[in-house]
Amino acid sequence: MIQEKTLQDVENEIIDEFSLFDDWLDKYEYLIELGKALKEYPEDRKTDDRLVKGCQSRVWIDFKIQDGKIFFNADSDAIITKGIISLLIRIYSGRTPQEILSSDFSVVEKIGLKENLSPTRANGLVSMIQMIREIAAGNI
Fold first, then answer.
1. Which residue of the set 14, 31, 38, 55 is catalytic?
2. pTM for this one?
C-alpha cells in the first residue's frame, strides 16, 4: 500500500523546492509556473460566495467534501496570486478538517513568502488562509 504524504511531508517538499532558488525573482517565476499548472476552474463557479474577501486580486476557492476530507479547487485573475493559492491547495487539499485546523500555516514564513510579498498580497495570503480555515471549520 502506498503511504500517503502527511501535511508536514508536503510542507517540507515545498520548503526544499523554494530553497533551490537563490533570489526572489526566481521564486516568483516558480510561483507563476505553479499557478499555470493549477487545475482548470469552471467559469460558473466564479461566484461571489466563493470569492476570497480581502484580496486585491480576485481569488475564488471552491471545495467538496469526500470521505471526510476536503478537496479544494481555486483560481485567480492575478498570475502570482494564482501560484500562491496553488501552493495552499497542494498542502491542504485532500486533508481532514482536523489536519487543516491544527496546521499553523508556518510554511509561508519558512519559505519567506509572507515577507517577500507586497503588503496587499500579504493581506490576500492571510485572507486565503482564513477562508481555507473557515471551510475546514464548517463555517462556509
1. 55
2. 0.92
